[in-house]
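Box S2. Input/output pair 1.
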Amino acid sequence: MKVFYLLKPFLLLFIVLATLTAQAQTSSLTGTVLDETGLPLPGASIQIKSINKSTTTDAGGKYRLSGLSNGAVTVIASYIGYTAVTQNVTISGNTVLNLSLKPDAQNLNEVVVIGYGTQQKKDLTGSIATVSAKDFQKGAITSPDQLIQGKVAGVNVISNGGQPGGGSTIRIRGGASLNASNDPLVVIDGVPFSGNSVNNAPSPLSLINPNDIETFTILKDANATAIYGSRASNGVILITTKKGSSAEPVINFNTNNSFETIAKTVDVLSADQIRAYVNQYGNKSYDDNPDHTYKALLGNANTDWQDEIYKNAFSTDNTLSIGGIFKNVPYRVSAGYLDKQGLLITDKFERATGTFSIAPRLFTDHLKIDLSLKGSLSEARFANEAARASAIQFDPTQPVHADNQFGNYFEWIKGGVPNPNAPRNPVALAELRNNTGKTERSFGNARFDYSFHFLPELHANLNLGYDVSKGYGRVFVPAYAAQNASTQGFQGRSQDTQNNKIAEFYLNYAKDIASLKSRIDVTAGYGYYDNKSTSYNFSEYRADGTSVTRVPVVPFNVEREKLESFYGRLIYTYADNYILSATMRSDGSSRFGEDHRWGYFPSVGFTWRVIGEDFMKESKVFSDMKLRLSYGQTGNKDGIGNYNYMAKYFRNTNQGQYQIGDTLYDYYTPAAYEPDLKWETTSSYNVGLDYGLFKNRVYGSVDVYYKKTKDLLSTIDIPSGTNYNNRLLTNVGNMDVRGLEASINVLAIKTENTSWEIGMNMAYNKREVTNLTLDSDPNFKIDAGGITGGTGNNIKYNAIGQAPGSFFVKKQIYDESGMPLQGVYADLDGNGVVNADDKYFFHSPDPKFTFGFNSAFSYKKWTLSTVMRANIGNYVYDNVSSNFGVRSNILSPSGLINNANVDVYKTNFTNNEYLSDYYMKNASFLKMDNAGLAYDLGKISRNGNTTIRISANVQNVFVWTKYKGLDPEITSGIDYNLYPRPRTYTLGLNVGF
């Protein structure tokens, strides 16, 4: 495939670097690192400071540094949660140095990435969580967001279905907006990652190789996020990728090969059940001809249409990397290749990735440069998603193929053409639509950190970055395909580009003032962000290319947004126990008019390290205790158009023109606009407690928070004729979010051969709309989600006193046997008439509680791990049953037979009852996301550095739920046409040299 072309330069670079960094083996330093009990510490860092060489210990705590020159050196051994040890040693031949580390009583010297800098964990004032590579989800991971699923309290990562590379919906503390975006800001190595969809790619994050990621840092409260200002209302995710370490060259090869099966399909009637149903109810005629009965339409086949369109799928994911130091310059190069098939026939996704990073240090380490470049090339064939719904509805008594002019696929025919009211053959939908896409993406940055010689505490930082992408695709449907019979086939193309630039400069001054027992850390900076996207418009043709079916009005559309920012932060620490931080950010966005362009977003936080007080120093129980208080404001301008504040006119289609004289002129249509559009602002309060017990064998945190969003960017109804539309996006309304988060991590067992680590987290979150109108109207509501079936049926609304997107339904009445009665609903207002005024709000898609559980049990070289998640209180509207599970669907008045799911037996409805609360289902669930077994061979030779690790994983192991539909985890809360999430079996191999 063409994706291999991207890998060629990276593979060549591998060979060059491996050759250049080969060193003569003179002397070496070997040894073992032990903990306080005498047990080995795997993963401990060993560094020779003077020559910038380092390595890590293997599973047995052993290390080896080769290619050393004889002489005296300083060795530093460190491990997270332990006090670093520095020891001098003289290298001569093969030197042995064994080291022992003791736990850091606070277990908080870990350095955490924060906005525009780093900070020790013990000094954090905001609510921040970190997930490192050792704790990532394992198995077939195609998108980075999947790595942290279920790992962090208050962070929900919900896959958008089983499509290869389909990505996920990420919510931190539930989201705080209605019409603006609820997605968190993602920053990768200092570059804000554009979350805008890239044409012809499954999802933006799917273009990043998860194997290149080192850590995730999640900023949750306003004190942690306010430094990012207008983009941080929904939290911030900082992704740090792997970099070259100051070590001898290390080559690593990782491969995961997976086999996917469909875990569950929609429970529909079999061919024999359809025959029995039609024989019972289908004796009547479907038109004026008495011979045209439904029984006469029955076929002789026994077709499982879901089995016809879904298949087992194979995928392979491979990454090769080399990292080390060449002439005192750390570097890392990696190349990856993913080939992933989908469960739906014809679905496929390929991705090639490459990364390159170097980190030279100049002027005796006063100037630090970090250069990072990342690129990806993807090719995909997107299966026709209409095949999924059609496979549920299509008559199972009919065969896949028939002798006809529609490619020999069976279709319902009426008047010699495909019946316009019939579903199309599911197999034909998938096989006869060739929708292919290619995407190229590159992003990276150069970061400069200069420490002034005359004032080394003062650093000047410059960050120059970019994020560019190009997506293009083609769609072809042959003329004989029933799905496009009216236009005699279809062919079209698409293309778009994105070009985002970033320039940031800030000064940082950090100084310890021993005489005052104080430390100050001050940052002040400026940022400029330029985001531009171009969409190209092409004519559409029939399959033979001879007739144009659509001509674009303009050849391309350009969208551009600019953002300027000024920001600052002060962190003051007194006596190492009291930390005060304050931030301010001012953002100016081109999405708002001059009078409302700038938004100001402050925050303040305070931390009291209780464990540092004299009355806690002798505690044999507590090893950490820290109280955090914070308040801050953040803004939101994402998810809305670039020009909503200004008057706009759109050129009409070529079919609508004015004639002046002999010339035809296109006319322009005005669009609604709001000149006073301004920032949506969220104020957040957070109280948190971090704790550690028994030398941090038990540790975790508890957070309570409250968020209030004002000036919601919301769509409201306006009088017709007042602003060129009957709806307008404006600032109106408020929303409150309240929540509780808790996490606990336990090192339950730790002996020479055995360890068992357990982690649990939970979160409670409640969102409530408190205002939606300029003048207080408690009864106002606006639709927030429609359903399939009927015309204009909306099931979700935003309303005062309700969670966003709550379900608005009729209360179903049941007979004595528990069967719902057709068209019989409760008269809730008691006026003797059942009408639209009797609808009521009934639950929402938001879960009340979310839980995460992970466990890793190790015995010698074996590790058994699992990850589980649970949601409680989330409801789903079963649109599959409401649309298909009725008699009028099976015995269609359009003169055909359809299939239905088994719910038709439970209701016996003749016609659709779309608004019945019968279709509201409790979708609480417990899922085992992952179960894995790994065997670490460690170093396979006495003097070599080759290591091997073998792993086996199962993903989507089981789901326990009362919901009978395909899957209870649906972001929108409306279950219809979901791509089934596969059950995946993966064998992995990691080899290090």
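Box S3. Input/output pair 2.
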Amino acid sequence: MNELRGFAGFTTRDLDRLAMAHDASHYLLKPRAVVAPVDAAEVGRIMASAASVGTPLVFRSGGTSLSGQAVTDGLLVDVRKHFRSVDVLDDGARVRVGPGATVRSVNARLSAYGRKLGPDPASEGACTIGGVVANNSSGMACGTEFNTYRTLESLVMVLPSGTVIDTANPDADKQLHEQEPGLHEGLLRLRRRIISNPDSVRTIDRMFAMKNTMGYGLNSFLDFEEPVKILEHLMIGSEGTLGFIAQATFHTIESHPYAATGLMTFNSLNGAASALPELVACGLATVELMDAASLAVAQRQAGTPASLAGLEIHRHAALLVEHQAPSAEELLEKQQRSQALFDSLDLAAPFELSTDAKKRSALWHIRKGLYTTVAGSRPAGTNALLEDIAVPVPALAETCEQLLGLFDRHHYQDSVIFGHAKDGNIHFMLTERFDDPSQLDRYEAFTEDMVDLVLGNQGTLKAEHGTGRIMAPFVARQYGPELYDVMCTIKRLADPQRLLNPGVVLSEEPRSYLDHLKTAPVVEEEVDRCVECGYCEPVCPSKDLTMTPRQRIAIRREIAAAEQEGNHPLAERLRKDYEYDGVQTCAADGMCQGACPVLINTGDLVRRLRAENHNAVADKGWTAAARHWGAVTAVGSLGLSAAKAMPAAAVQAVTAAGRVLLGAENVPLYSDALPRGGRKRTAAQGIGAGESTGTTADAVYFPACIGAMFGPADDGRGNVGTGVTQAFLNLAGRAGVELIVPRDIGNLCCGTPWKSKGFIDGYDVMRDRVLPALWEASDHGRLPVICDASSCTEGLEALRDAASSPDALAEYSDLKFIDSVQFAKERLMPHLDVSRRLESLALHPTCSSTRLGINGDFTAIAASLADNVVVPPSWGCCAYAGDRGLLHPELTDSATAAQAAEVNELRRSAYASTNRTCELGMTRATGHEYRHILELLDEATSPRKGTP
């Protein structure tokens, strides 16, 4: 690998190699090195260098592919970090995208134009454009009409020789002929060969009339004449075996924000299948099939609608159907046109289409929760396999019945069938343990039977997920020797050394799909549940600095595997590097849990590891701080005020020296972006305070201690602002709402500092002080408790849920915590008039406001204050995480880089968030003063007439 050392991001460090070895598939190959090129030209040089020494390579972006097409034992080329560009063209009619951008991030930018991408994969939050093109992704609604192949306009592709071709260039075909004459002529020969063979044409027409990602897209030879256009469309679905996709330009489609959803329950699969033709004809956007096993699994899910929960399931099947439209009027028209058809169906349970957001969400949870339920409850040490096939729609019911027979024959329990019924495309799940020879034999026998079943029904072995390694040995069986030879010729023409992703798409070894199977050593609860799907990665604030949640879990598995194999030096090297990459730079913000299909919060794992690694001195110090928290916050406030009065460089030098002596995990780095110290919290701050029972109060107010530690931001007019505490009190008084503040508030805290750092004893001390105080102040849970920092509101909920005994937990479970943003929207704003509006307002939703579900309230308040409200498309956790942004400022710098660039494209009248430390992080990142949204609301409102 010495020839590659000069390229960007080159590393052979064990931690980096093994973290990137894991993707969403059930295959595991460990790269010898990783590179992270910065542009297409560097990719070309990397491919040329790799070819000169015969090193195989693979391109990795999102790593969400399920078929083994994103792993290698050669060189892994990370093309996610530097290839995330999104350029909206022609008012959203087209979009030009880098391969590292996720589908969700592209659609976020298109949403302002009422447009979206055609492909709509379920993994849209994590899968990237590179994989979408390389796998010819589709999804629930797009079918074959709006998939990648049909909506692509042009590509920038890098060939194995290093040649870069932009197919949007009018001279692209001429360039291909001049720079790659053998490839250009070879494609013309293959086209003549195909179109002159009627059997080949019939097979291609039949295969690509349905969703089909097996082998190469031979329909390119029938749809196009120019070699450059043929090659462009062969790249779609080629899974990185023919070249690198450096950029893709798409035609977009109209987005349909209005929807009506319903669940049709049939007495049998045949009944559901028989209804499909008419249901598709009536214009339904999605028709999702669930078999009886799926419905039985769904009944175990929380929130399942009563109509399904009470059904006694035998051989039932269900279709989740949805109408979509660009307007409410068009949606109603579609519903009315199809109602007669719906009324004519023989259903096993009542059916209705609903536009209610909560009901629709509950219905979609049935479908999307299948994977969560089955994968999350699988035995430790097993892998969850999600497979997909497609057959002609008339053969769908029989194929499902035969698959159920295979599950029984091979003793697969709890396997479920679901999928995109209108396309004849179904998915099924298996759980398998590949370190057990008998189960491996079972898997091989099942696969052989499944291949015979699907091909016997004139189907395709891969509809959406790509051929990968899993189906590469069966491509010849699906297409026949003639067309298989055409595919082999395509590979030889484009990649004569066969160095791009060898073993993927095409394989001469009939049992190669059984090689390099992933085993899952039993480690710990969070690790064992992980299916390594990668859905967590885009929301992780440390993804561009060190590691992602998937990688943190993968390395825990690698450490366990190394220990089991007796490779203790490797395990020790991994542990050493993991301390910074895996533990210290994790924000523990919990955003990964919201994205995870099996609901893992990797922050819980990291907090436990921090607790295990603490020394006794630090533990005692933080426990003492919990006992005297009022004094600690006062000292911290005085220290910040003193530092503000001194030259910033001098204070920064002192803290930098302390970090060298005592460690970066123990001493924060001072920044001149930090404010002066805050104001002391007292119970007298409450409106109508003094009655500890709260008999006349409307709510308990819990001002967060971060307001006592950090002073308020400037008000934008050169003055020190009021701060959120005073702003909330002003708003409550203006709205006629009476508040009380708990006794001894100066010594109370939500416990988050101790929890995030893993200081369990100190956390217990704070919990045992705070919960009784709030229990008393709230009149035993009668009054809601309002907190003015979203992270602290979430922390209080966690504190309540961590009550030390079952009796205490039952008692304190009646405590109700509401964030001040939600309380202001629901209780205060109806009594307030906005008298001063802003021209524009930029918002930073926080990880806690997201997890609390109050972003809608946040943006609603903002909309009442400003004519133009902007949430940056790339917003995410700022990673300030209490003091984590002070201990590791590089973490916040990395996490906020993209968002800060978007914020600074235009100057706004004001900038707002919901949490003081997040405001500090965004202020440092952007250079603009961020304030709590309630401070802006306070300055802009007056009492509404008639308010008491």
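Caption for Box S3: The first helix runs from residue 14 to 21. Residues 689-694 have pLDDT under 50 and may be disordered.
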